[in-house]
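BUG-216 | component: ligand-complex export | severity: low

The export step for fe (ii) ion jobs runs without errors, but we want the raw record kept on the ticket for reference. Input record follows.
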Amino acid sequence: MSTPSPKPLAGKFAALCGLPALPLAGRSPNKLYDDDCYALWNKYAMPENIRRHSKLVAHIAENLAELALQRHVALSVDDVRASALLHDLGKMYSLRFGGAHAAIGAAWVVAETHNYAVAQGVMHHVYWPWEIVADATCCQLPMLVLYADKRARHDQCVTLDERFDDLKVRYGKNEEAVRSIDASLAQMKAVEAALMTFLGWEGLDAYTFTCRGLVD
Ligand SMILES: [Fe+2]
């Protein structure tokens, strides 16, 4: 008995066949190169300043990931870099139309790439809802993207305090907003302390990741 062939898409779904696809032919569908991320930046109209910021976040996150690998943490440096490059993909949309940019960006990354690890980093780059412990778990992909983002003020590498001072000026419009920013700073200090302990890196909090000249 022969296997029935799948029915062709009909009606309004037939139009979906014309959507642009990323150039993934000939390699793992889950591996994302910088050019794939740049294609998504273009598709979702990411402005230049967010592209520069994202490149810096990727540089910082990648540095941390390489050190984590030396500590035998199981993670993909490529995924960490791609996730950092894409972490603010939903930012412009949320500024124009509302919604949580982390969730919007993560949904787009899942739909476009099917790489759930990369999407997870996008989803959690604002807040980590679970416990922070100074073991290998503090070097998970989302944690590295989360921390790297908080060390990048626009396209400049800064300390957590400098980054959060800037957030307060821009977003601390009322008491509740200031409380929320303070809570986020406290969480990031906990992440930083965990990373310093686990990675054995005492000067991490002030390290500049040799970023001069990185962002063109
Ligand atoms: Fe960011």
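Assignee comment: Attached the raw record above. Residues 53, 57, 87-88, 149 surround fe (ii) ion (CB under 6 Å).
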